[in-house]
């Protein structure tokens, strides 16, 4: 995009917003009410008045028109899955005129079932909220969240058009919108940004949050000025339950058993949700609590390769065989209070708590020049909680929203142990591999000594305690005035927001490289089942752990390696964001235009250590003398005064910048069944708080330096985003849509892996760093079709439900190699093809669903020497079956990953393709009962 076009868009938006601030025409009549099914509220119904001004109902079914002319008006309400209803009312300026709609005619019970429960209910709820939105959104209701065998929020979100997930240990972890890296998304709960518990990313791993405590998930693909500007991919808002969203007392309970094929174990999953209103609907209380445990194993194989491009040769340098034994527990809870002291004021207190415990034992055998057998024993706990207090006050045509929130996230890794045994030097010989399939090599005939536990000597043990913490305080106020803008119905809205974020990582590591006695593997011997190859004898985690804690003083500490591992991981960062926006909306009856601009000012400070290890001879030969920083550890031979020194240099990086972010969203109701949309918005994506800090992690592995290098020069990503689309709603029971989008991304961020890289005063055999690439372009087509055949097909066939969505992308950026040549590459972590297909049946109390999800391969890491890492394409099949025993009691059976699909990553070069990582997880089955009142 040319600079002239960018400047024109920005100036046009600013001038338009300023013109839109013309005071609305003074009118006093107010019409408000609710849309229900005779009891339960209906969200997303479109209410129009006089075939002109329109609005949509909120979660509690309420709608409101302010500043109308006095006199007679015609109201109508439409909802996919129900017949349109109209009414004539008379409005005065004395008091608000109330009118409530009941959808469903005489058979309210049947209509309530269709709208609120089952596959049709979840289908209609999502379609209506999408249709009613001013911008491009996709919504998963509470019912939709329960229609698939999903274990967490991330897995639920992947059912939406253009959405996929990045997996970890076979579970969905990060949400990917339109194939783009999850770090380009913003994630919030009830409109408040969530802190991230992980040290090196802004992305919120949504496997922490159990889907059972949620009311809905809204994924926004085109931003408006009242939303945070850091959402190049889009924004994800998770909403928890309000008692006013239900009709009186609401109770739901579930009890499940989870069976994991890989571990052959059954574990529990339970959840309960309760909501009710009191004091004549003045006070509402809603709470959810969920717990689940999953025991499973992962069979893994990883490799590294040595490439010689000059001689056109490559060889397998290292092959790792890994077995993970994992126990994951989630405890999620939400407790929300709502208070309506007057008819024009709503107050609320929202609380959310999630605890995620990941207990992992990793057994590994590494075949290379030096043969290792090691064990990792670690328990990782992530806690995430937030508190939000706020409200909404309506004064005639003015609506004031106000909110203050605090969010905390932490990840603790206490008492982690990594212990390794190495084959004695005298017994080492070369290792032979079968490379008939380089993408999944196997071990060939080898020396019998490789499998003799008595020949493996103690090599190294690391004891680690780590803690990552992130806190964010946010406060905002939004003021909206309804009325006429240039003689057209609409509103003007503005607001201010403050976000103060702080993040730190603190690691204490002790590395032992010897013991006063000769320890051998046969003293700590175990074995694991491993289907991919011959993993050989392994380390018993219980025996090694008990021995270490009982004999800690007998181990020999490597003070230099310990200092480097500890100081290099520590960092602290603060980020203050000050935002303000102005926007306006004009409702032309058949066209709705929303436009405005947002300004965000960012102040960032990052502090961390640059750590290096120097041998005495390196210091003597260094042209620039001793490195910066202070000596934090040393290992010196007293007799010859030679040894190794660890230096730590504490540094600070500061960045301040201001972003002007205009946007324009237009919606055109061509007729009752056809809607067209267009959108433009500017957005940003700030770099990881850690990656932009000077902290650098350096690891000594067999005398070779490896690690990650911080980049204080890392800049934010900026993007201009365009969307056009058309939506067709046939037969009042489905949707067919097609959209085109384009993103022009400046300075995209990617991780680069360097070989033989000079930095921090040493030469790294391998080092990774996040850098800004040259500008990238993304274009895409998005197709979505969802249809219920109830009322279309006769008899049993009316229970059929089908859904399909597909996203086709083309992304491109340029990377400059170490030799100065350039090459075109896809945008990292971006899949070119994403699709979902679903077939369902919902009738006679029977609810069946089969779902297929697919994503094509994507570039994961860029190699500076032309060795890029790709994740291969993957599909997954999931099945769900439910049967209603009574109106309240339901039996459920689910199977995810039916065909046991693996995760497979490979290195790609001009010389060929070789294995990087391969994982097998097996399938997971769930069976249980649901009770709803």
Automatic annotation (TrEMBL):
Membrane topology: Multi-pass membrane protein
Keyword Metal-binding appears in the UniProt entry: no
UniProt keyword terms in alphabetical order: Cell outer membrane, Membrane, Receptor, Signal, TonB box, Transmembrane, Transmembrane beta strand, Transport
Domain TonB-dependent receptor plug: 133-234
Domain TonB-dependent receptor-like beta-barrel: 498-898
InterPro entries, per the entry: Beta-barrel_TonB (IPR000531), Beta-barrel_TonB_sf (IPR036942), CarboxyPept-like_regulatory (IPR008969), Plug_dom (IPR012910), Plug_dom_sf (IPR037066), TonB-dep_rcpt-like (IPR039426), TonB_rcpt_bac (IPR010104)
Highest taxon of source: Bacteria
Compartment(s) of residence: Cell outer membrane
Listed Gene3D superfamilies: Carboxypeptidase-like, regulatory domain, TonB-dependent receptor, beta-barrel domain, TonB-dependent receptor, plug domain
Pfam families: CarboxypepD_reg, Plug, TonB_dep_Rec_b-barrel
Protein name: TonB-dependent receptor
């Amino acid at each position: 995009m040319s600079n002239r076009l960018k400047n024109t868009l920005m100036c046009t938006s600013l001038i338009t917003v300023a013109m839109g601030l013309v005071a609305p025409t003074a009118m006093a009549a107010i019409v408000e009410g609710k849309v229900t099914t005779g009891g339960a509220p209906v969200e997303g119904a479109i209410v129009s008045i006089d075939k002109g001004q329109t609005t949509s109902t909120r979660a509690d079914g309420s709608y409101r028109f302010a500043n109308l002319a006095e006199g007679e008006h015609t109201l109508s309400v439409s909802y996919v899955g129900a017949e349109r209803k109209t009414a004539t009312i008379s409005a005065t300026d004395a008091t608000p005129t109330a009118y409530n709609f009941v959808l469903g005619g005489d058979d309210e019970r049947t209509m309530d079932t269709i709208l609120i429960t089952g596959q049709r209910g979840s289908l209609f709820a999502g379609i209506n909220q999408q249709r009613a939105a001013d911008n491009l959104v996709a919504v998963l209701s509470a019912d939709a969240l329960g229609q698939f065998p999903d274990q967490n929020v991330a897995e639920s979100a992947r059912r939406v058009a253009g959405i996929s997930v990045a997996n970890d240990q076979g579970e969905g972890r990060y949400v990917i919108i339109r194939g783009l890296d999850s770090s380009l998304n913003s994630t919030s709960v009830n409109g408040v940004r969530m802190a991230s518990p992980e040290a090196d990313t802004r992305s919120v791993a949504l496997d922490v949050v159990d889907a059972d405590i949620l009311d809905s998930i809204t994924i926004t693909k085109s931003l408006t000025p009242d939303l945070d500007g850091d959402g190049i991919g889009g924004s994800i808002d998770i909403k928890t339950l309000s008692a006013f969203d239900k009709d009186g007392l609401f109770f739901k309970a579930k009890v499940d058993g989870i069976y994991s094929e890989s571990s052959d174990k059954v574990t529990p999953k339970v959840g309960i949700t309760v909501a009710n209103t009191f004091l004549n609907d003045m006070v509402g209380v809603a709470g959810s609590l969920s717990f689940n445990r999953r025991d499973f194993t992962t069979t893994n194989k990883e490799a590294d390769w040595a490439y010689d491009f000059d001689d056109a040769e490559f060889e397998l340098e290292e092959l790792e065989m890994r077995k993970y034994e994992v126990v994951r527990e989630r405890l999620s809870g939400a407790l929300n209070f709502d208070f309506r002291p007057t008819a024009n004021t709503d107050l609320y207190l929202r609380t959310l708590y999630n605890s995620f415990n990941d207990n992992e034992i990793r057994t590994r055998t590494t075949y290379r020049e030096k043969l290792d057998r090691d064990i990792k024993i670690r328990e990782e706990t992530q806690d995430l909680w937030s508190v939000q207090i706020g409200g909404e006050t309506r004064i005639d045509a003015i609506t004031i929203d106000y909110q203050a929130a605090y969010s905390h996230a932490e990840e603790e890794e206490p008492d982690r142990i990594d212990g390794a045994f190495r084959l004695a030097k005298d017994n080492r010989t070369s290792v032979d591999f079968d490379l008939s399939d380089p993408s999944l090599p196997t071990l060939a005939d080898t020396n019998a000594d490789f499998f003799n536990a008595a020949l493996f000597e103690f090599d190294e043990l690391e004891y680690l305690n780590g803690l990552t913490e992130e806190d964010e305080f946010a406060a905002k106020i939004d003021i909206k005035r309804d009325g006429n803008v240039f003689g057209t119905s609409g509103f003007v809205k503005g607001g201010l927001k403050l976000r103060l974020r702080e993040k730190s990582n603190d690691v204490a590591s002790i590395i032992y490289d010897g013991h006063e006695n000769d320890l051998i593997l046969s003293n700590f011997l175990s074995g694991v089942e491993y289907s991919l190859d011959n993993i050989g004898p392994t380390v018993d985690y219980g025996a090694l752990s008990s021995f270490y804690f009982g004999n800690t003083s007998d181990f020999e500490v490597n003070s230099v390696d310990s200092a480097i591992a500890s100081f290099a991981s520590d960092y602290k960062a603060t980020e203050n964001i000050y935002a303000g926006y102005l926007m306006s909306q004009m409702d032309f009856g058949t066209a709705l235009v929303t436009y405005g601009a947002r300004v965000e000012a960012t102040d960032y400070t990052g502090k961390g250590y640059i750590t290096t290890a120097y041998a005495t001879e390196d210091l003597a030969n260094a042209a620039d003398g001793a490195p910066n920083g202070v000596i934090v550890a040393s290992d010196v031979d007293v007799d010859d005064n030679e040894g190794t020194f660890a230096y730590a240099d504490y540094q600070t990086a500061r960045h301040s910048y201001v972003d002007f972010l205009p946007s324009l969203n237009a919606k055109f109701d061509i007729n009752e069944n056809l809607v067209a949309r267009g959108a433009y918005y500017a957005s940003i994506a700030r770099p990881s708080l850690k990656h932009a800090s000077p902290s650098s992690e350096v690891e000594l592995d067999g005398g070779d330096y490896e690690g990650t290098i911080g980049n204080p020069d890392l800049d934010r990503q900026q993007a201009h985003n365009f969307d056009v689309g058309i939506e067709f709603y046939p037969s009042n029971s489905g949707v067919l849509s097609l959209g085109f989008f384009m993103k022009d991304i400046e300075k995209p961020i990617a991780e680069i892996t360097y070989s033989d890289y000079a930095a921090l005063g040493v030469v790294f055999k391998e080092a990774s760093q996040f850098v800004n690439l040259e500008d990238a372009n993304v274009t895409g087509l998005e197709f979505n079709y969802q249809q219920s055949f109830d009322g279309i097909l006769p008899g049993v066939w009316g229970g059929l439900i089908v859904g399909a969505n597909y996203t086709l992308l083309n992304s491109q950026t340029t990377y400059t190699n170490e030799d100065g040549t350039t090459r075109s590459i896809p945008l990292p972590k971006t899949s070119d093809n994403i699709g979902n297909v679903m077939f369902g049946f919902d009738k006679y109390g029977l609810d069946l669903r089969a779902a297929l999800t697919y994503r094509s391969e994507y570039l994961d890491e860029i190699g500076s020497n032309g060795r890029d890492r790709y994740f291969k394409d993957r599909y997954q099949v999931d099945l769900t079956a439910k049967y209603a025993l009574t109106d309240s009691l339901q039996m459920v059976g689910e199977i995810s990953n039916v065909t046991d699909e693996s995760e497979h990553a490979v290195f790609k070069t001009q010389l060929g393709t070789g294995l990087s990582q391969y994982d097998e997880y097996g399938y997971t089955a769930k069976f249980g009962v649901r009770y709803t009142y």
